[in-house]
Amino acid sequence: MTMNRRTLLGAAAALPALGGLPFRSARAQAANTIRIGVLNDQSGTYRDLSGPGSTQAVELAVKESGITQRGVTVEVVQADHQNRPDVGSTVVRQWIDRDGIDVVVDVPTSSVALAVNTLVREKNKVFLNSGAATSDLTGAQCSPNTVHWTYDTYMLANSTGGAMVRAGGKSWFFITADYAFGHALERDTGNFVKAQGGEVLGAVRTPFPGTTDFSSYLQQAQRSRAQVIGLANAGGDTINSIKQAAEFRITRGGRVKLAGLLVFITDVNSLGLEVAQGLVLSETFYWDLNDKTRAFTQRLGAMPGNIKPSMVQAGCYGSVLHYLKAAGDMGVAAAKASGVEAVNRMKAMPTSDDAFGDGTIRADGRKIHPCYLFEVKAPSESRGAWDYYKLLGTTAGDQAFRPVADGGCALVRS
Amino acid sequence: MADTTIDLGTTAAKHEEAGFLGFTRAQALAFGVLVAFVFISPFFLYPVFLMKILCFALFACAFNLLIGYVGLLSFGHAAFFGMGGYITAHTAKVWGLTPELAILAGGVVGSVLGLGIGWLAIRRSGIYFAMITLAMAQMVYFFCLQAPFTGGEDGIQQVPRGSLFGMVPLDRDFTLYWVVAFVFLAGFLLVHRVVHSPFGQVMKAVRENEPRATSLGYRTDDYKLMAFVLSAALSGVAGGTKALVFGIATLVDVNWTMSGEVVLMTLVGGLGTVFGPVVGAAVIVTMQNYLAEFGAWVTVIQGVIFVACVLAFRRGVVGEIGNLLKVKL
User: Fold this and answer.
1) Which pLDDT does position B13 carry in this prediction?
2) Which residue has the higher pLDDT, B301 or B276?
3) Which of A254, B32, B165, B239 could form a disulfide with B81 if both were Cys (CB 3.0 to 4.6 A apart)?
């Protein structure tokens, strides 16, 4: 009894003394140092798509912005959010509160991106999203501190649905993962297909998560005699359906095409051309698209895992380059002082970089650039490593993304 | 774990009751250290990170109540934790409830869910019990994936922290920290009180030898169910508190991996010890947080530490310390 009472009393006595200690002082904030935090998946599904390659792209952007020659220091740090919103949210809080981070870059996985979006707005910093798909970032949950650079679900549905019909794929059948995300993809893509004069013959819902055998769904799709089988799913579901479609030789002969609504070049790479050939997909950047993208890829140098840059990594490069231009233009101190002002300056300036060409940023934070519809080459057509795509069609920037009035973004309504 | 005889005798109970709040001397000392740490640490460490530890510590304590003292391995506690989070987030954001009511709502829904799942699950024991809880928790996961109010993959975002009792705004991390610390300490003491009550004695009796407890006239199913509901309610409170801290409620918290994680926390800290779950939660959350900077190495390091823990500290960190000092912690 005496012992524990004494302990408690001792602890109580120690408290006021500790209360006098200063708050953990934030690291001295040098006025001419910009700190950039790259937050993405370094150990899971999206490692190749974003991961350390994104950090490398950001470092290239820092080098090429020329801002360091003007006496400005730029520090780049990275962290793994493990695709968990609470981990991502804690990391960003610590970055901003303690490490004086000014810009958060990349952040794939929609739930993490939306959490970071709220947080960065609260703290008035800058959020340059490249990796996340949700079009809510520039819609219902848009923020004056956020630029959504690379792609979103609306654009993917629009390009894959609309451009595919224009390229001749008139009749569609969907294999849809049975949850909100899959339904939304199916609905949006179906609308674009119909708007372009195509028709949707039907759809089959696959239980999510947990479906590994897609053979019956694929056969059902085949029986519908549709020209295009739309995969309104993501990740492992998409990979499995593509693999099994290859086993059934559904796409051989070229009459039926498989259209992936959320597939990236890294997925094509891991599937291999033998399996993925004939797959149709949309991206906003392809390393072998033109001289500028090839030059960009060249300058980026060897990537971890010997991969070519994905559109997400290219987006990290483009967005950071543009931010640093804006910051150089308005003064580093002013850019650091207010994230909203920095993003406003970014919106006021036209963008230009080797990865995405010329573009603009809309009032709701949406970056505007063209979107490309690609078909995966057959192994016989491929001339070398990472020669994966042939271009089927291009959707101009002003057509590719959701019209600013339809997003329900509060920034443009006022 | 050492007591092979059933502690139903009043002498043992009286002996334990004699200490401060039912603590033995060593436990009281450890509790003092814990309280001191809770009060002092926010001045040195990052409050949001500490709040996360406290939420998971409460969750692990609730889980430990079931596995450590009744001997029931639930593999579905994520359902209560995650659902508590969703309910708190929804009531705070859409209904505009004050934070204390929102957390309470999370706890109530957790306990109702626990009543339903527990009522079914306690009819079986061992691996069957674990499988039933897992199956039911997966059903809750599917519900959360499909129900409109949970926001599917994106989860419920932008949950306001609100004002405590409608008066004290919790926007500052530091203010919220004290609320979370209070919730944690209250939950911790509640678990401790339950474990060291006559009710807790029966729970332990059920753990050690269920037929014998039945033969002594106890309705063991009722005791198991009550423990299950209590554990579920506290898990709901922990999940709700976490939702307020981060302003989000997502599928990660209802996923089965979260059920696994709380088992891991309890194992690393020490099964059936009062302080083990707290230490275990701190270790696991710290790993998740501070290893985030190491990028791809995070999972490797986590794995190595886990293997080391399992090989070197079979009783968990706190269990081993207790064994070394020959005290019950």
Assistant:
1) 44
2) B276
3) B239
The strand pair at A367-368 and A357-361 is best described as: antiparallel
What residues of B are in contact with residue A58 (Cβ under 8 Å)? Answer: none
Contact B292 A3 (CB under 8 A): no
Indicate if A278 and A180 belong to the same structural domain.
yes
A380 and A242 share one domain: yes
Give tens-digit pLDDT for A229-288.
999 988 888 999 999 999 888 887 778 899 999 999 999 999 999 999 989 999 999 999
Asked if the structure places residue A405 within a domain, the reply is no
Q: What is the 3-state secondary structure (H, E, C) of chain A?
A: CHHHHHHHHHHHHHHHHHHCCCCCCCCCCCCCEEEEEEEECCCCCCCCCCHHHHHHHHHHHHHHHCHHHHCCEEEEEEEECCCCHHHHHHHHHHHHHHCCCCEEEECCCHHHHHHHHHHHHHHCCEEEECCCCCHHHHCCCCCCCEEECCCCHHHHHHHHHHHHHHCCCCEEEEEEECCHHHHHHHHHHHHHHHHCCCEEEEEEEECCCCCCCCHHHHHHHHHCCCCEEEEECCHHHHHHHHHHHHHCCCCCCCCCEEEECCCCHHHHHHHCHHHHCCEEEEECCCCCCCHHHHHHHHHHCCCCCCCCCCHHHHHHHHHHHHHHHHHHHHCHHHHHHCHHHHHHHHHHCCEEECCCEEEEECCCCEEECCEEEEEECCCCCCCCCCCCEEEEEEECHHHHCCCHHHCCCHHHHC
Here the tokens at position A170 are 């008139």
Please state the domain count of chain A. Answer: 2
Interface with B, mutate which of A46, A111, A129, A187 (most B CBs under 10 A): A111
C-alpha–C-alpha distance, residues B193 and B190, integer Å: 5
Q: Do A375 and A258 have their domain in common? A: yes
**Closest Cβ–Cβ partner in B32, B154, B298 for A7:** B32
Put simply, the answer to whether B155 touches A114 (Cβ < 8 Å) is yes
Q: Which helix (H) or strand (E) holds B161?
A: none
Contacts with B31 from chain A: Cβ below 8 Å: 4
Domain of residue A233 covers: 154-283+371-400
Residue B91's pLDDT is 94
ipTM of the complex: 0.76
| Same-domain status, A382 and A262 | yes
Window A:244-283, CB contacts with B under 8 Å: none
pLDDT score of A11 more than 50: no
Return the CATH number at A176: 3.40.50.2300
Task: Give yes or no: residues A375 and A364 share one domain.
Answer: no
Q: pLDDT tens digits for B312-324?
A: 888 888 888 888 8
Kindly state whether residues A141 and A232 are assigned to the same domain: no
Report the residue of chain B nearest A179, measured CA to CA: B146
Q: What is the per-residue pLDDT across B116-138, written as a single tens digit (0 to 9) for each? A: 999 999 998 889 999 999 999 99
**How close is the nearest chain B Cα to the Cα of A256, in Å?**
31
Q: Which residues in B lie closer than 8 A to residue A19 (C-beta atoms)?
A: 43
Q: How far apart are CA B259 and CA B243, in angstroms?
A: 17
Answer yes or no: do A216 and A294 share one domain.
no
In a domain, A331, yes or no: yes
Q: Say yes or no: A38 contacts chain B, CB-CB below 8 A.
A: no
- B230 Cβ neighbours under 8 A, 6+ residues apart: B62, B65, B111, B114, B194
Verify that A79 and A159 share a domain, yes or no.
no
CB A326 within 8 A of CB A364: no
